[in-house]
Amino acid sequence: MEKQVIIVSGKNGQLGSELKDIAALYTQFDFYFFDRTELDIANAEAVNTAFEKYKPSYFINTAAYTAVDKAETEQEQAYLINAEAAANIAKAGKVYGTKFIHISTDYVFNGKSNHPYKEDDITDPVNYYGCTKWMGEQLALQNNPQTIVIRTSWVYSVYGNNFVKTMLRLMKERTDISVVNDQFGSPTYAKDLAEAIMQVIEQNNFQPGIYHFSNDGEINWHTFATAIKKVKQLSCNVHPIPSSQYPTPAKRPAYSVMSKDKIQSVFHIQLKAWEESLAECLKHL
């Protein structure tokens, strides 16, 4: 029997790299990993050619334009990668009967809630990055009925650029740093998300729609930074500050904690506590 093919875009990003690491455990599939130079997902023709060649059973789109502040000025670029590309993949996937797993973000919400967001809560992005990711979700779901959108948040990994690695660097360089304490969310270890995606695929119980995934727990960035300091036993002082003292080009939602009940009940996925996953990641850094 021929193996089912899985294509993964964004192979050098945090999630793409973690999927590459665990791919060998799933011998029932043939994986093909691409970066932007190998497969430009913003180019419909290139996408169609790849689908024709590999005829994938699954396409996992981990590629994204994630520079939240830069997206405010590089709007065309952000739109192409986060929205247009999702439409290209979904359209080609519909032709080839490919199941599409598209990764989105907590930044589709405005952050005015005071309880975890559910999948069907009203979206209202507060910055252009969130807006393009929201458009990407819509285009993916509209163009391929066999689409799962997974919204995730505060992603970190041993790969790529992320908050955890930035904090480690700053804490080693400086005696004092300041971190905002009035933005609340849930961190996601990219390795846990990679495993969850493969669990969804392996179960052969593909139920299209939107799902939320992160590690368990609700914290602010200052708490996160303090935990990193503690695990690594660093002596840097970590001071809490309000967002108003750290202005950024793009606005951030004040509260973007998401409810993960749906992904847990539909796919029986167990969530790890954020502290446990952070400690595991820091062992490798």
Keywords:
single chain, six-stranded parallel β-sheet, 39% helix
Structure characterization notes:
With 285 residues, the chain is an alpha/beta fold. It has helices at 14-22, 44-54, 75-96, 128-143, 163-173, 190-202, 221-232, 261-267, 274-283, and strands spanning 4-9, 29-34, 58-61, 99-105, 147-152, 155-156, 176-180, 184-185, 188-189, 209-212, 219-220, 237-241. It has one domain: NAD(P)-binding Rossmann-like Domain (Rossmann fold), CATH 3.40.50. The chain has a 6-stranded parallel β-sheet, with helices on both faces. A two-stranded parallel ribbon has the order 6-9. The chain has a two-stranded parallel sheet with strand order 7-12. Strand 4 (99-105), helix 4 and strand 5 form a beta-alpha-beta unit. Helix 5 (163-173) crosses helix 7 (221-232). The protein starts with a strand and ends with a helix.
Oligomer, anyone?
single chain
Give the CA-based shape.
globular
The structure class reads alpha/beta
Biggest sheet details: 6 strands, parallel
According to CATH, the fold-level topology is: Rossmann fold
Order of strands, widest sheet: 2-1-3-4-5-10
Mean pLDDT over all positions:
98
Radius of gyration equals 19 Å
| Structural domains: how many | 1
Q: What is the succession of H and E elements?
A: EHEHEHEHEEHEEEHEEHEHH
Amino-to-carboxy terminus distance? 40 Å
CATH architecture: 3-Layer(aba) Sandwich
- In the CATH scheme, the class would be Alpha Beta
Helix content: 25-40%
In total, the number of strands is 12
Give the DSSP E fraction (strand runs of 2 or more residues).
15-25%
- Low-confidence parts: none
What is the count of helical runs? 9
